[in-house]
Amino acid sequence: MSMDDETEGAAPRNKTIKVDDKKRKPRGPKKRQTLKGESTAKKIPWTFPKNTLEDAIKIPKVVEEKNAGKPIPARDLALAVGFNQANDWRFQDLARSANQYGIVNWTGAARPASITELGENIVAPSSARQRSEALLTAFRNVKAFADVEKYYGEKRIPEDEFFLNTLTREFKIPRDRVETFAKVFKENLKFLRSFTASPTLAETAATSGDIVGSSKPPEKIAVIAGGLTPRETRVREFLDTCFVMMPFGLWPDRYYQEIYVPAIKEAGFEPVRADELFTTGSVVEQVWEQIEKAKLLLADLSGKNANVFYELGLAHAARKPVVFTASNLEDVPFDLRHLRVIIYDTREPEWAATLRKDIAEYLRNATKEPGKSIPHPFRRLVEEAEAEIAESSNRSSRKG
Asked: Which of 211, 297, 322, 374 is the right S-S partner for 379, CB 3.0 to 4.6 Å?
C-alpha cells in the first residue's frame, strides 16, 4: 500500500467529521477578565469636578455678564467661554464642574444653563464677605472635597505619595483619578486662601455669622497645602484680575504698592504681579497662565525693560487689552502710542494721586471698550469672535 493510501482505521481524507450541534459551543467575543487590583473607574461616574472652582466660575460669569443672569443656550455659553461647540468635551467638563459646585444649573448641551443663587453670590455679590462665604460653600458642595478637608483639619497635607494613597484608601478615589483630585483640591485651597486675611491657613474671611446656605457658624478651612505658601498677603476681593507688567526694584515696588494696587482695586479688579505668584516650575508658563486669566493688563514701560516688553508680546498674542504707563513718552514704542497711554512726571506736584486717578479711569474705560486697548491685527480677531457670539445669540432669540 502506498503512502497515499488511507491508513486502516483512520478517518478518510476530504470527508467532514460531523460534530453534534448541541455539543458545539457558539463562538463570540471573549469576556475580558479584570485583573486583580485593576481599576474599574471608567464605569464609575466622577464624584468631583475635573476643573477648579476658579475656572468653573467662568460659566456663571458669562450668564451674568452676557445674558443679564437669565438662562443662556449652551451654544452661546460655549462660544462665550472660548469653545466652538456645546458638545466639545472640554466645555462639557467645565459646565459639569460648575454644576457640581452648585453655581449653575446645567443638564446637558441641549438645554440652557442658568445661574443659581450661590453663583450670583459669587459673581455679583453685595459685599466681599458674601463672595468669600459663597466660594467656601461652593467648595464644600463637593462632598469629596468637604470630607478630605474635615479629615485633615488643621494638619498639613502630606507629600504627594502619602496624600494620594490616603485619598485612595480612605476616600475611595479611583487610582487613575487621584492625581486629578489632588491637583484640583490643592488649587481650590490656594484660591480660597487668597480671599482670606490669614497668610498660612485657608480660612473663610468671615469671623461671625452664617455661611450661605448653612445654619452653622462659619468654620475654618484649615487644611494647608504642602509647599503652597502665598506671597500675596492682601485679602482678595475681586474675581477679575489685572496683571501688572513692570520692572522690579525699590522704587517700582513702592509705586506698585502705593499707587498701582489702590488704583486697580478702585477700578474693580484684583492686582497681580509676577513676583507675588512665582513657585517652582517654568516662570514663562506661570506668567502666561496669569495673562490668560487676566481681564486686562497694566504695563509700565518706563526704562524699556526687556522682561516687560516680552510679557507685553504675550499679552497681545492672547488678545488682551493693555493700559500703558510711562514716565517718558520716548519709552513707548511709536506703533503703540495710539493705544491708552498714561504719561506721568514725578517732578509735578501731586503726581502720585493724579497717576492713581488716571489708572483707575483708564482701566474702567478699557473694560467698556477693550478694542481700543488692543493693537489692530489682534483687535480684528477679537471683533470677529464677539460678532460670532452676538450672531449666535440673535439666532437663539429668533428661535425662542
From this structure: 374
pLDDT of residue 310: 94
Amino acid at position 399, single letter: K
Average pLDDT over residues 196-220: 38
Q: In total, how many domains does the chain have?
A: 3
Residues in Cβ contact with 363 at an 8 Å cutoff, skipping those fewer than 6 apart = 242, 263, 264, 267, 269, 296, 298, 323
Give the phi and the psi of residue 174 in degrees, each rounded to 5: -55, 140
How confident is the model over 346-368, as a mean pLDDT? 94
Q: 245 and 268, same structural domain? A: yes
Residues 194 and 305 grouped into a single domain: no
- Determine the structural domain holding residue 106 and report its residue range: 44-124
Q: Cα 302 vs. chain centroid, distance in angstroms?
A: 32
Distance CA 96, CA 193 (A): 24
Range with the lowest mean pLDDT among 120-129, 146-155, 305-314, 378-387?
378-387
| Secondary structure tally for the chain: helices H, strands E | 15, 7
| 53, burial (CB in 10 Å: exposed 0-12, middle 13-18, buried 19+) | buried
Domain boundary residue among 80, 95, 124? 124
The Cα 76–Cα 224 span in angstroms is: 39
Q: Which residue has the cell 439666532?
A: 395
For residue 396, the Cα-to-chain-centroid distance in whole angstroms is 27
